[in-house]
Write a structure and sequence with these properties.
mainly alpha; 91% helix
């Protein structure tokens, strides 16, 4: 749902500051999805040793998503 919203907002948003944040959000959301996919692949492969490393990447991206959403909310 977030990805769809990002794509829709990116197409219609006129405010330059919001567009910049939406572009950043799009990038970070993609990074979060890549990390989640990697975690799933590691779980399926039984490679628990690497899951912690990738989980750090996922959590970092998730925090960035939340920060960017809060910044967008402040702008209105």
């Amino acid at each position: 749902e977030l990805g769809r919203w990002i794509l829709q907002a990116d197409e219609v948003e006129k405010n330059a500051e919001k567009r910049k944040l939406i572009d950043q959000l799009h990038q970070v959301n993609g990074e979060m999805h890549k990390a989640a996919s990697a975690i799933a692949a590691l779980v399926n492969a039984g490679n628990r040793a690497e899951i912690g490393k990738v989980n750090v990447q996922y959590m970092y991206a998730a925090r960035q998503v939340m920060t960017l959403l809060k910044e967008l909310e402040k702008i209105g």
